[in-house]
Design a protein that fits this description.
alpha/beta; HCY_dom_sf; methyltransferase activity; single chain; 12% strand; TIM Barrel; metal-binding; zinc; eight-stranded parallel β-sheet
Amino acid sequence: MTTDALTVTDAGLETVLLFHDGIALPHFAAFPLLDDANGRSAMRRYFDAFVAIADERGLPVVLDTPTWRANADWGARLGCDADALDKANAAAVAFVRETLDGREGALVEGAIGPRGDGYVVGERMTPDEAEAYHSAQVRSLRDAGADRVSAMTLTYADEAIGAVRAAAAAGIPIVPSFTVETDGRLPDGSELGDAIALVDAETDGAALTWMVNCAHPDHVAPGLARATPAVRDRIGALRVNASRRSHAELDAADELDAGDPTELGTDVAALRALVPHVRILGGCCGTDARHVAAIVDAWGSATTT
């Protein structure tokens, strides 16, 4: 298998904890489990599985901290003030660093989530407001020693502009990521390619690379197909959902739709012709280590012709 310098990343932490381990996650937040011995054990098992995938294939690994909800508004819902959130973000970096156990080339990526829901746009911020909002978490992750940050499941361009500017001001690399609906457009209706191009233009291309996450490959494909080659070349990471259900359907679901890992791997590999520069592969909602292993293997076996 030719992997062409692929990097393994992790999958749907929250859905694994919730549906596989039966752990309650108020507001879909995993970071409070850092204060719980059983929660830490469950997260350690989760992360160890992806390290094993990388080790078995001789590939590097990057793991995201369990901090997707560790920002001000969601923290407040969970009873966390600014000081508690700073400590939680720092503890998450330390936890993932410990899990990586000194592996050469392994990276800790500090995960930043949207101010809103992640599937629904809700109240919009200006780029300046978004920069101010995300700056505290970016600085916490940087000060704790994260190698870079990711801003995942973003639903509109202005928030991404603010997140990228916050990372640039803090001097830490960032991988921003949009999610898309079943038609390949962002939840605010804008085209994926247009949104990436706008953010790059407004931030002087400061993002390290781009990612698309929290959507099935069948939903990502039309958005990629309508993007320009220059924009597609900026996309270096994919973290897809296991399910073909829409975001609205997933929100209403009581049971996990994990799909078929092998089929998902094939579906992700089919995107390679559109985004040949993708080198970071993982999963999002509904996925676990089985899906990521299948995705990495299928991508490495695919061709771009």
